[in-house]
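Blinded run. Sample ID left blank on purpose so nobody reads anything into the name before looking at the predicted structure. Input follows.
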Amino acid sequence: MKYMHDYKKLQVWQDAVDMAVLVYELTGAFPKAEQYGLTSQLRRSAVSVPSNIAEGSGRNNPGEFDHFLGIAAGSSYELETQLIVSSRLGYSSDTEIDKLLDKLNVNQKMIYKLKSKLVKR
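Blinded prediction complete.
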């Protein structure tokens, strides 16, 4: 795999951006009391995933890219946990949350697949 500086061409980055937009839309309907709590945490986690993919792709070597993909993966699991908490609190329908969780799980697999390609270099 050629080292990737053009992160916008990466499907994993594109999907993570789409996920962040969906999280913003979802949290727009959350209670105002959560504005500085769960809403803020969800949004930060969601934006962190594509941001770390982008930052890593611009680094000097595949090892650094791998490191930032690890951070992106961690943020995705943080996001997953926060979505589950949101569901249990009844802030959104289980159907909406399940759709997001399904998309997130696909994105997590893509991150790990890209990581494995970097390691094989």
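Unblinding after everyone has recorded impressions. The mean pLDDT is 93.
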